[in-house]
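pasting input
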Amino acid sequence: METKPLIHSPFEGDQSFIRKLARFAPLTPTETRLLQNAVVGQREVTARHDILSEGSSPTEISLIVKGYACRYLLLSDGRRQITAFLIPGDFCNLRALHTDRMDFGVAAIDCCRVARVPRQKLCELIEKHPHIALALWRDTIIDAAIYHQWLTNIGRRSAYARIAHLLCEVCWRFQAAGLLRQHSCELPVTQTDLADAMGLSTVHVNRMLQKLRADGLIRFQSRSLCVLDWPRLQAAGEFEPSYLQLHAEQTPRGRRDAFLDRSRDDKEIIALP
Amino acid sequence: METKPLIHSPFEGDQSFIRKLARFAPLTPTETRLLQNAVVGQREVTARHDILSEGSSPTEISLIVKGYACRYLLLSDGRRQITAFLIPGDFCNLRALHTDRMDFGVAAIDCCRVARVPRQKLCELIEKHPHIALALWRDTIIDAAIYHQWLTNIGRRSAYARIAHLLCEVCWRFQAAGLLRQHSCELPVTQTDLADAMGLSTVHVNRMLQKLRADGLIRFQSRSLCVLDWPRLQAAGEFEPSYLQLHAEQTPRGRRDAFLDRSRDDKEIIALP
DNA sequence: CGCTGCTTTGACTGTGATCAAGGCCTGTGG
DNA sequence: CCACAGGCCTTGATCACAGTCAAAGCAGCG
């Protein structure tokens, strides 16, 4: 992950979100610069604290720069459902562009650096630059595709398969974000987090993780995940990564206005090592 | 549901989708007309048949004009997860604007009339009319908000509460679409459909529906749902409708360019009778 | 050290799945 | 008009996956 300092940005930032957006809809250098300039500042959020609270009405869009976070929803009896894991480059609340009240919370899983983009600035960009709107919209759409998968995962798969599926998804996203090394990644989630994400109890997650370990599919200790047997892990989770839209990359610049007729046939898919 | 014939549209169409979009971002008469003209034709799909198949690459966006449909995903062993119910005015595959391959199927629940909008036409509109892009994007966002709720519903609520929650959601959406009359609506879904939507078995759905009936919350027979006790049904499902964004209506025309500073305080919510 | 938070274990329970059969309704064809 | 078939709903019996409760081990950390 090369981190060239950004000239126009008020902080020594990270471009992961730009790179991610560029994957969706090619951006001109001007558009890239405008997006970078829209970022107004960063803050640190300590582990296990809210980045955005349910019910608040933020006037800024937040963006994970470093660390891991999750979207969650709380029920009246204290049960929690995690609806998404967020990694560097992910927007917390793009939805705030269209709605005022947060109807979910966002919490830091480990210590996070969070950047802010004023809603108004982003709206101005959107109105003037359709490609930026498109790129952001696509982000929303991929979010929705992930929700889709989680729904079938939670609704129709066994606990064992669910966890396998989730781990596969996480690895693929990490891979695309340059956070995977040698089949391994930092994964500072607790078993309770996994349970809340997959609609299971902590105890049962513990037992299923043990089984995954016993079956030789993964190693998962001290907040670090290592996949030992990709084919079998993917098979166990019936995982099929196309919904993540992780194409191998960077539509050529010359075609930037041709988003309508981008080739129908599949772009090369990044094969996980 | 008044159905004034549309002058510029090639068919005696229905404007429900325009009305729905207008709820999100006020459209000028010109924009409305452009959208209506983008619709190229309709087709009938018989009950229980695919409107769009998983794996296909449609070049058109489909739109439910009449009838009910669902998005679904099939697992290798034949299990099915329904991820959304679609009613008149809903887009089946807006996602196709950004991705070629359908990664889910859409099936008609009863006999459906489906309108088509060529992707290219819609893309042209989007590029030239940021408000149309915004309105469609918002549609995607509300879809995502519904997925969010379904996730917590399936992940963390009991079968009884899940079904209650789903029925509440359906009623509110029907209400907004003018399909609810006297606390009653047509609901041609089978108990198997409900089961596939909520991650339950058909048998268990049957028993929970019986309990909901026995408790005096609903009547549900011959494809027609009647809610007998709103407060208790909402309580049973812990239902809280704000995520559906069904505000009472029609932001005044004069403010149409002011989507940035729409009032932060809550718009009046339609109270269900 | 002794917290505190996370993981692990065991015993027990229960929600909801599975299997199987029968009933009911509607549409169809003889 | 009746017989039949195919969906769909309903019921009962049994089973298992996963939840709950409780307690003990194990870090890391101030």
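fyi The longest strand of chain A covers residues 60-66.
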